[in-house]
Amino acid sequence: MGRSIGGVKGATFGEVFAVKEFRVLFGSFALLVGGDVIKMLALSVLVYARTGSPGLSAAAYMAGWLPYIVGGLFLLSLADRVRPRALMVAGELVRAVTCLLLAFAGLPVWAMLALVLVTGLLSPVFLAARMAMLPEVLPGDAFVLGRSMLNMASASAQVVGLAAGGAFLAVTGPSGGLAATAALSLVAAVVLRTGLPNRPARGATGAGAVRETLRVNRRLVADRRVRGLLLAQWLPCVFLAGAEAMVVPYLGGQGAAGVVLAAAAGGMAAGQFVVGRFAAPPLRERLSLPLAVLLGVPWLGFALWPGIVWASVLAAVAAAGLSYQLGLQRRFVEAVPEEVRGQAFGLQSSGLMTGQAAGAALVGALGEVIAPGYAIAAAGGAGIVVALALAKALRPSPVPSTEGRS
After folding, report:
1. Could you tell me if 331 and 275 are in contact, meaning their C-beta atoms sit under 8 angstroms apart?
2. Which residues form the signal peptide (predicted)?
């Protein structure tokens, strides 16, 4: 039974996992995240082995994220115009074929990067279809806990994916790592195809996909409530990503940086669990503002140049603040018309990816001018200022509603 506090019924993790469709979405999402981490790590190593260029190797690692910008701007309407199960299965099959071509087709480096960029254009569409299905299978507060579980799965799968990717690369080389990602994608495709019902598309077909995407994006951004919630989910994370991007130059070695970044992933998972499990829905929404501020505060400590232990503690506490987003999820679902829900979730994810890339670039540029510790502290300070500036959007409406938009 869910807990009822202040007249608002809160779900439990047990109730969430009792839903078969959520279990399918959760398991396939963990496979997706872990597989993508292995894929980009293996591609980066493969490009470096071919070229000996650190710059091209880094470009290969980031290539999987760059298409989110273009796909998010021009293709997201497909998430509402195609049946969601078909989209998700197609996404897994595209990933599998891409990895096999990268591993065994003997492509030149420019062709490998082009393949990743082109096939990645639909990645935000595939992800949007998955996220938009979540409130359909988990009504009410269960949806918020479902998002919490997916966030925890993402953090855990990234850590496991990096470890597994390193193991595969050590034993089989980068081609083996890419083949392993293809295998994970095929397993996920089977799980999705057999475990999900064939739900109809939410939106009607009509104008071209690009035109419709641009039209709906303008409509969503023009809505003051939706725009505020989007900015509240995007902007604080810009400076978190910027601070994390400076951890490697701050510590002067990727091994030590890996410890700090793993601690951040652990802090993120812990924050999602604690806020999702123990905070009742009204409290969860009231915590959004202070937790968003918390996202920036610990990074200020890097101005004192802490060692690896304290750096790990500060990073973990800061990343725990990401749980502020849980308090925005109900309001976001209610603010968005159901027929464009897929595109709205895609816009949310694409903006988040774009903002994180921009944050890493901005703080990285700052790190060229001042010492890395001070750049991290500056990112934390900027994050605090942004969270306070977004206070109106981060605070819940005076009378929380438990009714979802029909």
Report:
1. no
2. none
